[in-house]
Structures are given as structure tokens and as C-alpha cells.
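Case study.
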Amino acid sequence: MNISENTVVQFHYTLKDESGASLESTSGNEPVTYLHGHNNLLPGLENALEGREAGDKLSVTLGPNDAFGEPRANSQLEVPVDHLMGAPAWQPGMVAIVNTNQGQRQVTVVKVDGEVATIDTNHPLAGKTLVFDLDVIGVRQASEEEISHGHVHGEGGHHH
Ligand code: ZN
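After joint prediction, the assembly is written out as follows.
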């Protein structure tokens, strides 16, 4: 089966920067499972995966504008340390999760001074050209329920 709108796709990936340094990988962990054609992935990745099938390996290079955008100026702000989520203690350079009006976002800790943290609200991968090595491991037709919800149910997906 080829990847097209309303198929459920499973893949492993390794994300590298332009120099080839590995940034993150699903190798040894659960693969990514997503519903194709519902804006669940970066558009550049969905476009590259369109028409592929299980067993296909591909490498996709996305410039910043197709990935997480260019860094914005004046992106630093101070927040209470206890608003940072994801680790018990914080050092400069660590990536934290914060709640915002637009939902949860990844930010980078710039410094910690007592109860106050300075964070950079740019996405940690903003400004980077990203290379995704993709390994498609499964493609199946989505159920009517998955299509109406816009996401995958069961293994690797939502349970509700
Ligand atoms: Zn659902």
C-alpha cells in the first residue's frame, strides 16, 4: 500500500543537522505513527512521504522556513522556574516545556537565577536546516473513526 491521504504510516527517523550531527532518533524506541494528510507532520515531510511504501528509506532536507522557522529577535523572557516542565532541575541550554496560550511549547533555558528562569522562546531547532533520514515500516488504511478525529487510534496513537 502506498502512502496517501487517510493512510496510517509508521516510520523510524534520525534527525541530523547540516553537519551530520545526530539530534534525535527513534532508533531503539517506538516508531512515529501518524495519519497522513491531516497536518500531523511538517508539510515537507508529508510531501516527501506521499506515494512511498513500507520498506522505503529516504532522506529529506528541510530549510528553516520548511521546518521550525528563523529565530525571532527579542525572544527571551523571564518566567518562574516552577513553570518549566520536563526535568527536576535546570541548567542553561536545557530544553523545557512551558504552557502558553497556544498550548505546550519547547523553549531553551538561558539562565536560572533563584526562582526566576530566563528562557528563549524560539523553538530549539529554529534557524536550522534539518536532515531527516526516514525508514517507512508500515502503511495501512485509516478507519472512519480515525479519519473523522484526524489522528491515529490504538498502537502508537490516541487512546480515548
Ligand atoms: Zn480520536
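Observations recorded in class. The beta strands are 7-17, 22-25, 32-35, 57-62, 76-80, 95-100, 103-113, 116-120, 130-141. The longest strand covers residues 130-141. We will return to this complex in the next lecture.
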